[in-house]
Design goal:
Blueprint lengths: L2 E2 L5 E2 L12 H4 L6 H21 L5 H8 L3 H7 L3 H26 L3 H14 L2 H11 L5 H23 L9 H11 L8 H19 L14 H5 L2
Antiparallel strand pairs: 1-2
Helix pairs in contact: 2-3, 2-5, 5-6, 5-7, 5-8, 6-8, 6-9, 6-10, 7-9
Length: about 230
């Protein structure tokens, strides 16, 4: 039987292979309980917020308190700092990709879809996470590559639809869009995330106004690609 914990999770026992033909309820014991999954999601959300506010070295004690779980629960899900940083990065990439997919599906105007995605990605604090990815994360990790490739495809599709409809200037690339999100959501050195937040959406809107067609000027250089960003 599964034993409960102080956080309502279950310590799940594996079912012996010779019991595989038993009732479905017995096999269900091998699956995570819903409350354990909720705890994991709370930990990841809290860690994302604390990492962006205080950096990746914030203590596990603080993360556990913020998530409303015990230290044992946090360590059961994430035995070390790397595993937690890894999960936070993948979660943000997944959520940002879903923002692009929903914006494309639900906005009739393709530039409105771009605008919605940009502001939504800012709320995921992708810019504040960039230094953490660069310093503590293997950028060629297979799981990261899969998420990154999927996100790049969705963002590129958003931009191409807006450009094909004549709603977005053609000299702006997917790399330009992601640089703007990253730079405008990253707090300046010596400042806090909270002090930067009042300006984020205001300045992103200024950028978006400049990206909308018809273009009012000629941009120097060429459109930045996402490949450019990886080799920058």
């Amino acid at each position: 039987m599964a034993a409960g914990t102080a956080d309502g999770e279950a310590v799940v026992e594996a079912v012996p292979s010779d019991c595989a033909h038993d009732a479905p309820g017995r096999a269900a014991r091998t699956r995570p309980r819903a409350d354990a999954q909720r705890n994991r999601e709370r930990i990841v959300r809290t860690a994302r917020d604390m990492f962006t506010a205080f950096g990746p070295e914030v203590s596990f004690d603080e993360i556990a308190r913020g998530a409303g779980v015990g230290n044992a629960t946090l360590y059961r899900h994430f035995p070390d700092r790397f595993s937690l940083v890894h999960e936070v990065v993948l979660s943000v990439l997944d959520r940002t990709c879903e923002l692009a997919i929903r914006a494309a599906a639900e906005e009739s105007d393709p530039f409105d879809a771009v605008r919605r995605f940009v502001h939504g990605a800012a709320d995921e604090r992708t810019g504040a996470l960039c230094p953490m990815i660069q310093e503590t994360f293997d950028r060629e990790h297979p799981e990261l590559v899969v998420r990154r490739t999927r996100l790049e495809a969705e963002v590129t599709a958003l931009i191409e639809r807006a450009q094909s409809a004549g709603r977005m200037r053609r000299d702006v690339g997917a790399g330009d869009l992601m640089v703007a999100i990253g730079q405008l959501t990253r707090p300046l050195p010596g400042t806090s995330r909270e002090s930067n937040e009042p300006f984020v959406h205001r300045h992103l809107q200024l950028f978006l106004d400049g990206a909308e067609a018809p273009a009012r000027s000629e941009l120097p250089g060429r459109p930045a690609t996402l490949e450019d960003l990886r080799h920058h």
